[in-house]
Write a structure and sequence with these properties.
about 40 residues, mainly alpha
Length: about 40
């Protein structure tokens, strides 16, 4: 299992590249409640 090794603020464009598994991009998370996304490993 992967651990969180670092937490930092990044611009939305960078966040979209780091977290491509969010449908609609990270910006869409700010418009509504955050949905649960199950990602199989």
């Amino acid at each position: 299992m992967t651990e969180i090794s670092e937490v930092k603020w990044v611009k939305v464009k960078a966040a979209n590249q780091l977290m491509p598994y969010h449908p609609g991009g990270v910006l869409s998370l700010l418009k509504d409640s955050v949905p649960y996304l199950f990602r199989k490993q």
